[in-house]
Amino acid sequence: MPRMLLDIQNRGQLSAGMTAWSPGRSQLLATLKDVGSVTEVFRLSHRGKYESLMEQHLGRAAIGHVRYATCGAEDRGYAQPLERPHIQKRKWFSFGFNGQLANYPELRSEILAGDDNHLARDNDTEVIMHAIGNELSRNAEMDPIDLLKAISKRFDGAWNIAMLDACGRMIVARDPLGIRPMEYARLGPLVAAASESVALLNLGFPTESIRSLEPGTALIIDGDKVRIERFAESPKRAHCFFEWIYFANVASTMDDRSVYLTRKRLGEELARLETIQVDADTVVVPVPDTSKAAADSMAYRLSIPSVEGLIRNRYSGRTFIDGASSRRQKAESKYTPLREVLEGKRVILVEDSIVRSTTMKVLLGRMRSLGLAREIHVRIACPPIVAPCFYGIDMSTIDELFAPPFMRDGLLTEEAQAAMAAKLGADSLRYLPVESVARSIGFDASELCQACLTGQYPTPAGERLYQLAIGHTAGGEACRTYETAGR
Ligand code: SF4
After folding, report:
1. How far is the CA of 138 from the centre of ligand 1 (A)?
2. Alpha carbon nearest to ligand 1 atom 5, residue
3. How far apart, in Å, are the Cα atoms of 360 and each of 167, 224, 328, 419?
4. Eight-state DSSP code of residue 215
5. CA gap 41, 230 in Å, rounded
6. Does 452 sit in the ligand 1 pocket, CB within 6 Å?
């Protein structure tokens, strides 16, 4: 399990954990979890401690989780999997959740309206636990598909679930819109699933055995029986485009679309739109690591070198997925501009996206003061992020976003891009148009969620939260939309 979690550590670094099932142990389900990276929680740098932990958590089946917070506190109480013990084995379960319920405020209010009800945490994971628990308390023997049918009617948003009960039954479900990815593989008696294919590939499953779980379906492993069944119709898809552009591991393929090839095509789109005259002193510099594929392909198309003008400190983590308090400090210690590469050059700096601009501002400041580049032209392999996400990426207010104040009537004009460049301290800045995204991933735009680019949300609760966010911006409130919706 730690091996798989390491491969998807990019998806969250706040906490890590696993639950394992062993029929020969009195603690049928045993959960290990804590705040920290996979290496820290599983003590991977201490052989004795790691082996002892693994011995205590041996099992014939296991689920694991790495946490990235879009709501709730950053302490151990929010680490997953979330286990709910019970005297009846079918009602004793543990689960990990990937996504975010956009109608969480309503679900929370409904629960709290009940006599004597209390929620110990301020997030949707506990609400999901109660929804599953309620169904099981009505009928502990219910088929997992009926359980998922019942809960899916109540959920609005992104919700992939991996669940394990004290009978050893495992359920892996993907929400009907397929907002977040879910891949699985079978090889002989082995069955595994993960948010990203890279975790399955590195576990030894051959590429051709790895498949995407269809939205609205579940993989159920019960003893030696394995089945995939539909629990909800899936008339439309809304795969999060941001997975391919930034969030996912570059080695992954999700819904049959390679992350690497998508980023490479985004770089080609940037090259096609480039207008500056390149000369012998023009170089492309990627902001490592997520922009490298786009930068390299852009440079190749422009017939200029792509060089490492920024060296990333590999131990400082990913700024975007850390808590806001440490974001700027981390950005400051994250990159070192290389003077011997940048001095006197006209630099085309390629970044995968700009959300809040924390990293970009710090970076340009450091490149100006240490690198001595002649010019810096920023190119973004993504359109401007103009609206919040309510489906699992931590950007939940309009005010925290960089681009909206520059885009009058939502339009990305040359003047708007020039003003953004001036604000960042760049000589010029260019984004990709929205159409480039679907073209590069290889989906029709109607099959993608691009709500943070367009303000058009694929679910009613997302749409409602957006209207609320617009109201907060107009009213000068800077809180997470999601957390105020129920107030
Ligand atoms: S709003 Fe943006 S980040 Fe959120 S799921 Fe949709 S595309 Fe992804």
Report:
1. 35
2. 240
3. 50, 51, 10, 15
4. T
5. 35
6. yes
Residue to mutate, 450, 454, 459, 465, ligand 1, most ligand atoms under 8 Å from C-beta = 450
Could you write out the DSSP letters of every residue in 239-271?
Answer: EEHHIIIIIS-TT-EETTEEHHHHHHHHHHHHH
Contacts of 182 (CB under 8 A, 6+ apart): 98, 160, 172, 174, 193, 194, 195, 212, 213
**Strand, coil or helix: 92:** coil
Angle at 91 between CA 144 and CA 153, to 5 degrees: 45
Chain region(s) in the chain for CATH 3.40.50.2020: 257-484
Residues 249, 68, 285, 424, Cα dihedral to 10° = 150
- CATH number attached to the domain at 257-484: 3.40.50.2020
Q: What is the pLDDT of residues 232-245, one digit of tens each?
A: 999 999 999 999 99
Ligand 1 pocket, residue 382 CB under 6 Å: no
Mind listing the pLDDT tens digit for each residue in 399-453? 999 999 999 888 899 999 999 999 999 999 999 999 999 999 999 999 999 999 9
Q: Which ranges in the chain are annotated with CATH 3.60.20.10?
A: 2-235
**How far does the centroid of ligand 1 lie from the alpha carbon of residue 201, in Å?**
26
- Please, are residues 296 and 267 in contact by the beta-carbon 8 Å criterion? yes
How far, rounded to the nearest angstrom, does the alpha carbon of residue 366 sit from its chain's CA centroid?
Answer: 28
Question: Which percentage of the chain shows pLDDT scores above 90?
Answer: 74
What strands lie across the sheet with 93-101, from one edge to the other?
A: 82-84, 93-101, 157-165, 170-173, 217-222, 225-230
465: Cβ below 6 Å to ligand 1? no
Confirm or reject: Cβ of 443 under 6 Å from ligand 1: no
Residue 344 Cα to chain centre, angstroms: 38
Does the predicted model carry a pTM greater than 0.85?
A: yes
Which of 11, 241, 244, 454 has most ligand 1 atoms within 8 Å of its beta carbon, as the pocket-test mutant? Answer: 241
Asked if the bond preceding 383 is cis, omega within 30° of 0, the reply is: no
Nearest CA to ligand 1 atom 4: 389
Find the Cα–Cα–Cα–Cα dihedral 86, 89, 91, 97, rounded to 10°. 100
Query: Which CATH architecture does the domain made up of 2-235 adopt?
Result: 4-Layer Sandwich (3.60)
Ligand 1 atom nearest the C-alpha of 448 is 7
